[in-house]
Design goal:
Length: about 250
């Protein structure tokens, strides 16, 4: 489906996508604003081969209970951050092809990296590209995608490298994102211990044997039942609370 030179759209947008049952559909953008793209199948495959420069893979999402594809480590970091966002209730990768006519009427197409649904019903479309790798042709496609999203009330994000401290913290917590780490009665005890802000290791020790309690604590931080300041490196002295850390 891809092709064409980028440029400002001269005609209406169209969207092609793959429904959960595998049916391929193509419709005007105005007709798909309510389609649950968070359940759509990827419109292109995540291929891997020898000497490949990018690193594709699949992220197991605690939000969806399934795997979400990525085509680079940058995409992996951003799908991880979407998975960590408590407002996000659905995520899909390569959710649709967007078609439009560019300069001179030439056909142009672009597949955004992610579609995410929030718990209030709103949606965000995400494209991942390092700032230093955004060529004019790519920027024109991102601009057109942003314009298309605005037409149907979706937020559009063009993202580069995220904050490294936040990524390291969330990556650590992601190791405990699976529900198997929610162990009782430790989870209940930890929520009680951290009713008021307390240093991470002090609270873990108060709740029980740290080696047994810490995986549960990290899971509760992942699920936002406990909170800590993510812009600072997580450590034994990090303040943890059942409320917002100020």
């Amino acid at each position: 489906m891809p092709g064409g030179s980028a440029g400002p759209p001269e005609t209406g947008f169209e969207v092609a996508y793959v429904a959960p049952d595998g049916t391929e559909l193509r419709r005007p953008l105005a007709d798909v604003w309510a389609v649950p793209f968070e359940h759509a199948l990827p419109v292109r495959a995540f291929t891997s081969y020898r000497r490949q420069r990018n690193l594709p893979g699949r992220w197991w999402s605690a939000t969806t209970g399934g795997h979400v594809g990525y085509e680079s480590w940058l995409e992996r970091d951003h799908v991880m951050l979407l998975d960590f966002d408590p407002a996000v209730v659905g995520i899909s990768s390569q959710p649709f092809w967007l078609f439009w006519a560019g300069s001179g009427g030439r056909p142009v197409s672009h597949a955004p990296d992610y579609f995410a649904r929030r718990d209030d019903g709103s949606a965000v479309v995400v494209d991942c590209r390092p700032a230093e790798r955004r060529r004019p042709r790519d920027v024109a496609k991102f601009d057109a995608t942003e314009a298309a999203c605005a037409e149907v009330g979706w937020e559009f994000r063009l993202v580069g490298a995220p904050d490294p401290v936040i990524v390291r913290n969330v990556r650590w917590l992601a190791g405990y994102r699976h529900p198997r780490h929610r162990v009782e009665p430790a989870a209940t005890r930890l929520r009680e211990v951290f009713t008021e802000p307390l240093a991470l290791m002090d609270g873990a020790a108060s709740a029980g044997e740290p080696l047994a309690v810490l995986p549960v604590l990290f899971h509760l931080l992942w699920s936002h039942e406990l909170t800590a300041e993510m812009s600072q490196p997580l450590s034994a002295g990090s303040l943890v609370s059942s409320g917002v850390i100020r």
